[in-house]
Every structure is written in C-alpha cells, then in structure tokens.
Amino acid sequence: MSIDKPSGQEEEYFARQEFERKKRLVEERERGLKEEERKRLKELHSMRCPKCGMELIEIDYGGMKIDKCTSCAGVWLDAGELDHVVKAGAGFLGNFLKVFKS
Hints:
By secondary structure, the protein is an alpha+beta fold. The chain folds into two domains: 1-46; 56-98, no CATH class. Helix content is 53%, strand content 14%. The protein is built from three helices and three strands. 0% of the residues are buried.
C-alpha cells in the first residue's frame, strides 16, 4: 500500500486554510482588546469635561438633560440635544444655534 504525497496545489490549499484560520483567531483577539480598551477609556472619561477634564454634572434645563462642568462652567450637549434647543429657542438664540446644525 503506497501513500501518495500531497501535490503542490494540495499543500498550498491546506497552508492557505491554516493561514486563514490563524488570521481569524488574531482578528478575534484584537476585537476583544479593542473592546477592553474602549471600556477603559469610557471609565476614565465618562462625565468628564472635554475642555478641562473636571467632573460634569447632569442638570435639567427646559425639560432636557444637559451636562455642565463643575469647574469651567462649560455646557455640553449629547446627540440630538442641539436639535431640541434649536426647536425650543426663539429669536437670536434660535437663529444663532441654527448655524451649528448641519
């Protein structure tokens, strides 16, 4: 009984399959690291002022929750809150805020 050696094409096929399997494992590990890094950054920066780094406090203003810095008094809006301010605003403030809406 003779055992045939794999052809060059067969060896290439199996080598490519092994490479793809290892590549998927590395990509999965990288995704996990990225998720861990994102969680770590969120813990470090969540509710911190983008300008001075101090703590942000959520306040209720006109039926909307906005974030205000305890140090520099900066006011920060989450996604969609600028639209709410523009709709509620009148006169100069309403027109001025429309500049920031794209």
